[in-house]
Amino acid sequence: MATTTRNKHRQLAKEAERQILVQEEESDTDSDYKATNSSKSEEEASDQTISDNDVINISNDNDDDDADISINENVSKKRKPPSKIIKPKTSWVWKFFRETEDGSKVICLIEGCEKMLKWYGSPSSMKTHLSGTHHITKGIAANYLEALQKGDQNLISNIIEEEKSKSHPYSKQESLTKNVIGFVIGTVQPLSIVEDKDFIKMVNGFDLFYKVPCTKTLKEQISLAYEAGTEKVKNQLLQLENISLTLDTWSSSAHIPYLGVTAHWVTSKFEPYELLLSMEELPYPHGAIEIQEHLIDLFDDWGISSKINGSNVKKACSNMNIGERIPCIVHTLQLSVGKGLDIAKVLINKCKCLIAFLANDKKK
């Protein structure tokens, strides 16, 4: 760009020289001499002027380029990223917290705490910290701050204890207690867990106003829940036409025999269902008559005596002549092993007596 401007000025200078030469030819010799000298001086001056103008133009062009660059830099500097909409902090929790310099965390202002929490734009974590750690809720925040300004620790303690004494309405309390019962039963916890200090602390951390029931109350609630569940299952079984059963007897590690009874049925949509009806200790002796009496009592309790379908299935298989009956392989294998051990029956009996002696309580 500077080179083009320089060429233009040179062309203009040459045209000016030509006009001066034409004027000199028309004048007389003296004036021609003077004009020639003057033309030379003008030529030099014009050359000098052209060079100065060239420099000025070049500098101006460079200045323009620099100006454009500086303008672009200034514009880019002035272009700030879009600022986030900062909502006013109107929540009551901000009386107990302050933001860090970078605004990414908040610090609890209660003396001796100074807990630092991450700030995500919602005060929910701060509310949880105040209620769970300091037992401060929105209802007592104003009174707590007033007592804190007075420096009255007794008043602060009374405010917190009064807040702790509050509880949920009866319906909400019962609903939460059902959740606790579900936890105790589902995870096979001892009933005494509801009186454990750590368990109570954990529950109060989730909900300050929930009163954890004692062991006695929990037993009563579980009994009521069992009765309600039993009636619900009975109504479900009454709607079925036929039910199949599976039985299993086994001994625990403490050598206590149990009998498990499970009901099976298929819905109209061919969906299989199963339900454990009983898992009770089976008293001695374990004969066929004793087991039969136990099962009859169990079926009467559930109201399904007329719905047992095992005999019908066996009779249908024999009447339809669908094939030879295949007995249980595991049971057959067990019988064959038992017959094979008859050879060492004397030795086996001695081993059984030794095991029974070692398994018995030595204090008896």
From TrEMBL:
One GO MF term attached to the UniProt entry: zinc ion binding
Positions in coiled-coil regions: none
InterPro entries according to UniProt: RNaseH-like_sf, ZnF_BED_domain_contain
Protein name in UniProt: Zinc finger BED domain-containing protein 4-like
SUPFAM superfamilies: Hermes dimerisation domain (SSF140996), Ribonuclease H-like (SSF53098)
Organism the protein comes from: Rhizophagus clarus
Subcellular location per the Swiss-Prot or TrEMBL entry: Nucleus
Entry GO terms, CC: nucleus
Biased composition (Basic residues): 1-11
Keywords (A to Z) from UniProt: Metal-binding, Nucleus, Zinc, Zinc-finger
Lineage of source species: Eukaryota, Fungi, Fungi incertae sedis, Mucoromycota, Glomeromycotina
Major subcellular location class: nucleus
Region listing for Disordered, in residue ranges: 1-83
Biased amino acid composition, Low complexity: 50-60
